[in-house]
Design goal:
heterodimer, A: mainly alpha, two-stranded antiparallel sheet, 4 strands, B: 5-stranded antiparallel sheet, 25% helix, elongated
Amino acid sequence: MRHLSRRGPGWLLAAIVISLLGIFIAYPIGAILGESVVISGPMPLPRLKEVTTAALDLMPADRRQPAMERWVGSATERERLEALAAAFRLAGQEVRWNTKAAYSEQATTSAKALAELPPIDRATVEAEYPIAVVMLHKRVALAFQVKDKVTPVAFDELRNGAEYRHGLDHYLAVLDDPHLRRAAMNSLKLSTTATLLTVAIAFALAYGINRGGVPRPGLVRGLVLLPLVAPPVLIATATLMLFGRRGLITHSLLDQTFGLIDADVTNLYGFFGVIVAQTLSFVPAATIVLDNVLRKQDGRIEEAAAGLGAGRWTIFREVTLPLAWPGIKRALVLAFILSLTDFGNPLVLGRDTPVIAGILYDEMTAFRNTPLAAALCVWLLMPSLLLFLVLETIGRRRRYSTAEGTPPELPLPLSWRITLTGIAGIVALLVVAIYATMALGSVTRVWGVDWQMTLGHFIGGLDAGLGRTSDADLSVVWQTVEIAGIAGPLGGLLGILVAYVVDRVKPPGANLIAFLALTPAILPGIIFGIGYIVAFNLPFGIKALSLTGTGTILVLNILFSNLFVGVLAGRAALQRLDISVDEAAESLGAGLATRFLEVTLPMLRTAFMLGMLYVFVDGLTTLSSIIFLVSGDHKLASVAIYNHATSGEYGLAAAKSVVLLAFASAAMILIWLYERRSVRMPRRAGTEPASVVAGGRVELLEAGSR
Amino acid sequence: MSQLSIRQVAKRFGEVVAVDRVDLEIESGEFVTLLGDSGCGKTTLLRIVAGFAAPDAGSVWRDGENVTDVAPVSRRMGFVFQSYALFPTKTVADNIGFALKVARQPRAEIEKRISELARLMEIERLLDRYPHELSGGQQQRVALARAMAINPGVLLLDEPLSALDARIRAKLREEIRAIVDRLGVTALYVTHDQDEALALSDRVAVMRAGRIEQIGTPAEIYHQPASRFVAAFIGTANLVDGHVGDGGIESGGRLWPARLPRTATRGALATAVYRPEHLSLASADDADFHGHVQAVTFLGSTVRLRVGLGASSSLIVDCPSLAAATSLQAGAPVALRVDRDRAAALLAGAAP
C-alpha cells in the first residue's frame, strides 16, 4: 500500500502520457497503413473479368453456352458499344474512337477501329467481347444463376460489380499505371539530383564555415540557415518572381531591357526550376547536419595528419571526409526524404513534370482517394528507408566520434578559400534575393506587369484592382496565430511532461514512449497530415468523435508533429540534472507534484520555452502536414499562401509571408530576450534562437535516428 | 648547439598574452617538461614548436636551423596529442603507418616499420583493431608509435597521460621514459601534474602567465625554488612572508630561521620556505618554535602534523612514522626545530 501511494501519481501521469501519444501519434500512423490496403468501389476491368469468369465456371457447362449466346444476342446498341470498348481495353488496345459521341456515330467509328486492327489483335478483341458483355451488363442475371454456389459476399460483389476488400492493389498501381510509373521515375530522378546537389553544396558551406574557408563564418552561417524559418513555398515563389516567365531577371531585365533572351522560352519554370528551388530549400537543413559534424570534430586529428606529412588534399580525403561520413549519410537521407515528399515546389514550379508527391496531393484534395494516397505515402518512405539501410551497412565497425575539440589551426590554401567563399557567396546572395523579392513583392501592384507601390495586398488586394479571391485579406493570418498560439504552450508543456515521465518516472516501456514522441520528427509532414485525416474522420468508428474540419485537429496536428523538440530538450536538461536532487527532495518529504513544480520544472524552463517556440513557429509556417486538414471554417495562412502562389497571386502570397515572418521573428526575439535576462548560459555558435528553432528539427532528427 | 631552441617566442590571442617572450634551449637526448596550471601557455608554446600555431614573434630552431616558417612535417618532430587524435576510421596499423604512406614509402617498408614499432610498444596484437576498441592506455601507445613512425628525433607530448586513471598513469609514465631513453630521442613534455614532471624529467620549466618562472632539475626546482610562486606550486610548503632579519625572516614579532641569499639586505621583503620535512620534533631546549598539535594525519611512511603557533599561524610538519609521532594527540604541546641548511629564504621580486 505504501509502495502504491508512492508510485501512484507518477504512474497515473505515465498512463496519461502513453494514451495521448498512442492516440495522436501511433494511431494516425497505423491508420495510414490500414487505409492503404482498403480496396473499395467499382472493380477495375481485369478484376471484374476475373470475378465474372469465376462465376461462369461455376455454371454447368451445358447451360453456360446457351446463356452466353442469349446474353450477347440480347445486348442493346449502347451495351454492345460499351462492351466493345471494354474488350479493347482488356486486350491491351487503345480505344481509338470517341466514346462520348452519339451511339449511331460510334457504331461506324468503332467498326472501323476494329477493322483497322491487325488480324491477330482483332481476334483477341473479338475473343474478349462476349465476356465483356456479360461482365458489364448481364452480371445480375449471372449472379442469380450461381447464387447457391457462392458466399453472400461474393454474390453481392458480383451483382454490384463493386467490392470492399483488403489488398495491395494501390501499391501495385504505381507499378502498373503508366502515369504513376512515370511520376515515380520523375520523383526518383528529381530527388536523386536535388539530394546530391544539396549535400555537395551544404558540405562546401559547412567545410568553409568550420575550416576558415569563408570570411565572417558566423554571418555566413546565419544567412545560409535563414530559409529554415521561411513561410511555405517562399523559395519556389521567389524563384518564379525572379526567373519565371514574368520574372524580374528573366523578363524585365534580360528580355525587355537587354533583349538577350525570350522569357517565355528561357525561364526557370519546369524540372530544372524545381531542382533549383528544392536545393535551395534543403541546403539549410543539410548544412546544419554537416556543420554539427564538422564543428565538433577534434581539430587535433587533422593537425596530427598534417604533422605526419599529409597535404591539404590528403587530409581532406583521408581524415575529414571519412570522419564526416555519419553526417553525410544523415544529410543524404534527410535531403532525399524532404525532396521525395515535397509537393510545394513541384506544384508551383513544375506542373508539367508530375511527381508522386504532387499526385498524392491531387488524389487527396481533388479526388478524396485516401486509400491510394495512403499507399503512395508508404511508397514515398520506401526509397529513403532503403537508402538509409544501404548507407548504414557502410563503415559499421568504425567509430566516428572524436573528442569534441576546437577546429584545427591549419590554414587553407588560397584557391580553396576562393572556391568556398564563391559558393557561400552565391548561396547567401540567393537567400538575400529571395527575402528581398518577398518584401518587394508584397508592396508591388502586379509583379512583372505593374510596378507601382501599393499596400493593397495587406488589406485584401482591393487596391490592386484584382478580382476577389478567397482569403485575400489577413484574417486568415490572425486565425493562424491564434491556432499556433494555442498549440505552442500546450506543446511545450506536454513535451516536458513526456520527458519527465521517460527520465524520472521510468514506467515500463519508457523507451517506447520516447520513440513514439520522436516518430513525427522522422516521418515526413505530408504523411502525418494524411494520417490525421484517416484516423480522426471517424475515430475508432465513432461519429461523435470526428475531428474533421475542426480547429482542434489543426492544433493537435501542429502540437504532436513538433512535440519532439520539447521532449528532447527536456530530456537533455533532466539528464544533466543529477537524479539525486530529486531523491533528496523526496527524502525531505516532497510529493510528486511538489517535486515536479519546485525542483524539476525550474530546470525544464528552457526546454519548455524551446518546445513552445518550436511548435508556435512551425505552426505558422508548416504546410505539408496541415494542408489536408484545413476547412472552410478553419484555415491556416500557409495554405492560403500556397494557394495564392499556385494561382499567380504573388502580391498576396508575399504580403502574408511578410506578416507571418514578422510574427515568427517576434516570438523568437521575445523568447531570446527572456532567456538572456533570466539565465546566464554560455553562448556558442548556433544557439541563436533562429538556428535553435530551425536547427532543432534536424539536430533532433539526428538524435532520433541514432 | 642545442638540438631545439626557442628564442623570444611570443603569442597572444586577442587581449590575452598566451606566451610572453620565452627562451628555452634543449640539448640532444634531454627530457624537458613544461609544467604549469591550465592557461599558463604551455600547450600553446608546444604547438608553436610543433608548427601547428605560428608565433607572433620569436623563432624556433632545430639543429641550428630556423624552422619557424617550416611546415610541421619538415621539422621532424613527433607530436602526441592530449586527446591522442588517433584517426577513428583507420585501424591501429593504418594509424601507425599513415606518415609513411603519405611519404609514399614502399608497402613492405611500411609493414616492417609498423611491426617494429608495435613490438616496441607491445601492441602487436592490436594492429587490426580500431581506436575505439582500445583502452585508454593502449590508445596512448598507438599515439606514441604513430608519432615515432618517421624517426622524428624530437618528440613533443601534450599532457599525454591526463585522460588516464591514476594507476595506469604511473605505469605509463615509467614506460614513456623508458621508450624515450631507448630510442634516444629528445622529448619536450607538457603537463600540469607536478609528480609527473618531477618523476620524468631531466629538467623542468615551471610556467606562469606565459613566462618560464624557473627552469632546473627536479631537485633544484623543489629545493631551491627561485620564486615564491614556484615554492608554493611545487610540493607542499609553509611560506612565511616578512623582512630579512638576522639569520632568518622577521614576521609577526618572531624570527623564522632560514638560509639567506648573499644579496639579502636587512629589512628587505622576503619569504621563508619551510618544506614539511624541513621541520622536525625537537627537545624543548633547541627548539625554534613551541606550539600545539591541531591535527594528525597518518600518511604511511610519514605522519603529517598541523602545529598551531599562537593564535594565527600554523605549520605543516612531516615526521617519520615512528611511535613518538603517531601517538601524538590533538592539543598536545610540541617543540619544533628548523633544518637551517635546507630551509631557504626568497627575496621578494627576485628574478627567476
